[in-house]
Amino acid sequence: MNNNDLKIAANQIRQSIVQMVHCASSGHPGGSLSAADILTYLYFVEMNIDPKNPKMEERDRFVLSKGHVTPAYYSTLAQRGYFDIAELETFRKVNSRLQGHPAMQYIEGIDMSSGSLGQGLSTAVGMAKAFKMDGKENRVYALCGDGELQEGQIWEAAMFAGSNLLDNLTVIVDNNNLQIDGSIEEVNSPYPIDKKFEAFNFNVIVIDGHNFDAIAEAFKQARQTKCMPTAIIAKTIKGKGVSFMEDNVAWHGSAPNAAQCQQALADLKKVEVE
Amino acid sequence: MAEKIATRISYGETLVELGKIHDDLVVLDADLAAATKTDMFKKAFPDRFIDVGIAECNLMGIAAGMSTCGKVPFCSTFAMFASGRAFEQVRNTIGYPHLNVKIGATHAGITVGEDGASHQCNEDLALMSTIPGMTVIVPSDDIEARAAVKAAYETYGPMYLRFGRAPVDIINDFEGYKFEIGKGVRLKEGKDITIIATGICVGNSLEAAKMLENDGISVEVINIHTIKPLDTNIIIESAKKTNRVFTVEEHSVINGLGSQVASTLAENYPVKVTKLGMYDLFGQSGPANELLVKYQLDPTGIYNQIKEKL
């Protein structure tokens, strides 16, 4: 896929995010929109996966440690062919497979249940360690929030990953700078994020998380790095692509109404035409 | 009387035995391998032993991740940290996705001894039992502990196994002993009262039963090694026979074995149930045996409590 194809896929995912959150009247659009480009690259280029064979043994694994951005995750999985796009309408509704936070027992493409912040990275580290023990080539990816770095368990996991030389692990931090109570600096600053991961023996790459060239180069570097896990600090914009949601913490966990949904889709369709 | 053995030692030795047969078995610890006895496995299979350091929440997460990649992880730390500190990790990351992780929690209850109340977990059975799909097992002696560890490996699903620090008498060395997850064991027939016990309190209850028999009271003794799923049949059957039930556990009387027996009988065959255990209080430092005497969970203490409340 070239960059243009990726942009189109990411735009489709963003439209799905807005629609499914509106349809559920509930969900987390802001951090979903900021993570959409990373997820698109992971699922359409980077990871060794097969949506038709979701349990394939040699597949790479993904853990959504920032588990609340299921709108982005489910949209990506649906666009990639893991399940029918129409199912996105059931998100957060009774008897749906699409729970508010990822539940691996319902969807075969989900490698790990998550949702309670700080816990996902440990599970990704466990997977990476298991593959290393068996001398397997599978790679493991974990997407964390920047506010999530306030959880102590993240650093327990990071310490183990660095200490165990898990170069098959790539952690992506969706650094959109906002959390529910405000900017991450105002609440309890995790900065400098890059230096913290460096101190835990990570190879650290800071990129524009909406630039597919930069994303591609970062994952390439991660693959080439030996004896160290990689942390990609992706500078992103919360609400990316929807004018009135961009960099606005109010859209962390609230759903657009019908008019707002239309306006958001109009914003995204404009980009599509460009 | 045969030699006393702490169930944590049975655990450590059985892990080594299983490790010889099963390549997918891995053991994780959080800097307590010497105490939890997983150091035996570490010595035998260094490549399949992982020490995450003093980080119990991470311990549970790593075990969960490994279980999705074809491993059968047994992870160990003290009961206090496994069920308490890491409760939410066990609930959300192991219990909710129903992963095949075995938690071997040692140093449970007051018989931790000298370390005192900060390390004496009397709440783990309550905490672990509330997690949907979690199996909770408390072996009563060396023989049962070994059988439980083997059954845990052979049975898919999240499991909490509770082991003790203090040596305990062997009580299951009789012909026909069979361990089956979820099946209670009637150790002694009786007709006046039923004592239902778990863990180290089973042996002590058998001793107390002998003392009660000397007073002319016919005592039935049931070992409930699996707190969840609970063998409700054996409990109801015995209550129908004796119409008077006592429960004994090295755990809070709130939401442990006693509460679960009481609610089973309340729903099915209401008889008077008296719960012996830790009465909504923290323990304290001291030698294990002296603490059992202080909290009346030694044979004489159990005997006295039953005589008083009968």
Q: What is the count of β-strands of chain A?
A: 7
Low-confidence stretches of chain A: none
State the low-pLDDT regions of chain B, or none. Answer: none
- Counting helices, strands and paired strands, the structural category of chain B is alpha/beta
Mean pLDDT of chain B: 97
Indicate the CATH topology of the largest domain in chain B: Rossmann fold
How many distinct domains of chain A?
1
Order of helices and strands of chain B: HEHHEHEHHEHEHEEEHEEHEHEHH
Strand order of the largest sheet of chain B: 2-1-3-4-6-5-10
The number of E-state strands of chain B comes to 12
Report, as a whole number of angstroms, the end-to-end distance of chain A.
18 Å
Q: How would you sum up this structure, described in words?
A:
The complex is a heterodimer of chains A (274) and B (310). By secondary structure, chain A is α/β, with parallel strands linked by helices. Chain A has 9 helices and 7 strands; from the N terminus they run H-H-E-H-H-E-H-E-E-E-H-H-E-H-E-H. In chain A, the strands form 2 sheets. A 5-stranded parallel sheet of chain A has the order 1-2-3-7-6, with helices on both faces. In chain A, strands 4-5 form a two-stranded antiparallel ribbon. The radius of gyration of chain A is 17 Å and the shape is globular. Chain A starts with a helix and ends with a helix. The model of chain A has no long low-confidence stretch (mean pLDDT 97). With 310 residues, chain B is an alpha/beta fold. Chain B folds into 2 domains: 7-162, Rossmann fold (3-Layer(aba) Sandwich); 185-309, Rossmann fold (3-Layer(aba) Sandwich), CATH 3.40.50.920. Chain B is built from 13 helices and 12 strands. Chain B is globular, with a radius of gyration of 18 Å. The chains are: A alpha/beta (274), B alpha/beta (310). The interface between A and B is medium-sized, with 34 and 28 residues.
